[in-house]
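A favour, since you know our structure tokens better than I do. Would you make up a two-line entry for one protein for me to read? Write everything out right here, beneath this request.
=====
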Amino acid sequence: MVEHPFVGRCPACRGIVECQYDDASLAAALHRPGAGPGLNRWVGALPVTSALPTLGEGDTPLLAAPRLGAELGMSQLWLKNEGRSATGAFKDRGAVVALALAREVGARGTLTASSGNAASAVAAYSAAAGLDCLVLVGPGSAPNKLQQVLAYGAQILVVRDLFRTQEGLLGLLEGVSRRLDRLLVFFWALSNPYTIEGMKTLAYELYLQTGGRLPDAVVVPTGGGDLYTGIWRGFCDLRRVGLIDRVPRMLAAQAQGAAPLARAVAAGAERVAQLEDVGTVASGIRVAFTGDHALRALRESGGAVVSVTDHEILSMQRRVAIRAGIWVEPTAAVSVAAIPHFLAQGALRPEERVICVLTGAGYKDVSPSATAEVEALLATAPLPLDAAVVADHALPASQRV
């Protein structure tokens, strides 16, 4: 049986453990990043002893969005498009680190639970490493994401109430991992804090892409809080080695139907309480719990959190596509939909530089209404091969001959 050398929680206080690096190693990795593919340029700042099994993750584009920014009241809006990663989402950053660790311990298979993006990432990197992959999903997972998981040859099992409680979920995962001798690669810091280390590389990339002039704030769609926390840690690493003198404010964006962090901040709580029930079109953040590590990142960075409605999410998904030319999944649109709320509460000012993280590509989670729109289009009678008729139909109905 594969011995699992990785610990997620401190046995004494039950808090989430954090990877630690000595000053010299971290400074060397960040001051002189390597030229390797993917995240390998940062390997000295990651918890691995060998090169990462890259599929081309990372190095995603940072794009100016002046038209969208003007509509939202921001003069300097930028979008970090993680949908351009290997499997179409930011989870590749964590998966590549996890699979490197799986290879180091000689694992024969992997196990994860996910609403979709993490499953796709773990399945892809497992396939590349020659490891069997078992994925547990809850009912109602996005079909497009599951199609991608199956394409990589992973096995999928649907489990009722999978994400209802964190303790129930972790108990299930740890039990299945032991019974099947699979390395647990679950994207939740209580189980595997090492995936966060891969996510912090997004902060390192922002440092390079902005020429060291980091924004005033970064907006992150937030469910469990690992990406949000990972980016904050990456900024803290940069400050620790003297490359920056301040950390951008970390702004968390949640869906109103799944907003445990927003509720905790509103109540002035010291811990994030678990919700009884959740529901939102943003499947990637449809979870009942956010980690206390995210609450710490928010407060130490001087950040804030807001929640947005499903209507705002779907509306912004379309606006991002039309105004910025980027098709994102609903979860990714949450970060941009939150901008008006942050402006209203004073967490952002119109002249500030802000980067919204777009967590995944549009094809990852296509809404039923979008599918119906395409089906209706294809059901229409085709036009004849006639330029005049085609041009006439391209005009608004009121202008047609």
